[in-house]
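Let us practice reading a record.
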Amino acid sequence: MSKSKNKTEKKSSKGKKPEEVVKKVEDVILKIAIEIAKHGEGALFVIGEKVPYSHLLKHRIKRISVFETGSEKLLKGLAVIDGAIIIDPKGTLIDYGVLIKKTSPFLGFGTRHAAAITASKNGNISILVSEEERKVKVFKNGKYILQIDALQKNVVKRISTISQLLESAGAGVIGTVGAATLVPALGITLIPGIIVFGGSYYAIRALFDTGGKK
C-alpha cells in the first residue's frame, strides 16, 4: 500500500469513534450500491465481523480500504462477481466472491436475499442491490431496515441521513421488523425514494429533518 493511500485511510478514521467510522463506511458502500442498481446489476455487501462464508472460487485478496483513492471503481467491479463482498467496520476489504453459509430459502425471493438476511446477524449490516427492482435493500441484525429506489432523483444526496438511520436502528431509535415483511407498503416513506421499516413516524421524521440540515 502506498504512503498516499495510507494517509487517505488514516485521515478518514483519525480521531473518530468506531461508530463514526462505520457510518463513513456505510456512506461509501451505499453510494456504490446505488450506482450499481442504476445500471441494473445485482450485488451484496456485508459490513461487519464474524460473517460465516466460504469461497466460490480460489483467489488472492489484497486488503484495501474503501477510503483509498480508486477503491470505488475496484469495489464496483468486484461487486458484480457472483458472491458477496465482506468489509470490516473499519472499511477494510476482507474478501469478495464469497458464499454466505447457513442461509435458509426465503419464499418469493432469491438466494441473495437469504444471504443478506443471514449475513446481517450479529450486528452486521447487509446492503443488497436488486437488479430486477433497481433498488438497494438494507438489513441489520437479521431484519429488513430500509429500501432505497436508486432511480429516484437526488437520492444519493441523502446517503449521510440514510447511514444515520442505520446507526439509529442499532441504538433502538428505530424498531426493526421481521425479515418476512419485505413489502414496501408496510414501511414509512418520508422522502421520495426511501422507505423505512418498523419505526415511529415522528422519530424517523426527526432524523430526516436533522440530516437534511447538515
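A brief commentary: The longest helix spans residues 18-38.
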